[in-house]
């Protein structure tokens, strides 16, 4: 494998960095809101599942 000089490496990094597509402010805000909503929904779901399993376990233990 050929060695790359520091100058060539920097040129390659700049060329690759110029290909980056940065999201717009609107895309960033929309994505952040979506992530927040999904986090709240999943937290609520897992809270319900945990409460249900807790109730089942406590019911089973009370039978003993």
Helix-strand layout with pairing:
Blueprint: H1 6-17, H2 25-63
GO molecular function, one term: protein transmembrane transporter activity
Membrane topology: Single-pass membrane protein
Subcellular location: Cell membrane; Membrane
Principal-axes shape call: elongated
Q: Termini separation (Å)?
A: 70 Å
User: Structural class, from helix and strand content?
Assistant: mainly alpha
- What are the secondary-structure elements, in order, as H or E? HH
How would a textbook summarize the main sheet?
none
Ranges with pLDDT <50 over ≥5 residues? none
In oligomeric terms, what are we looking at? single chain
Percent of residues in helical segments?
over 70%
Tally of helical segments: 2
| Mean pLDDT reading | 95
Q: Which percent range describes the beta-strand content?
A: under 5%
Number of strands: 0
Rounded radius of gyration (Å): 26 Å
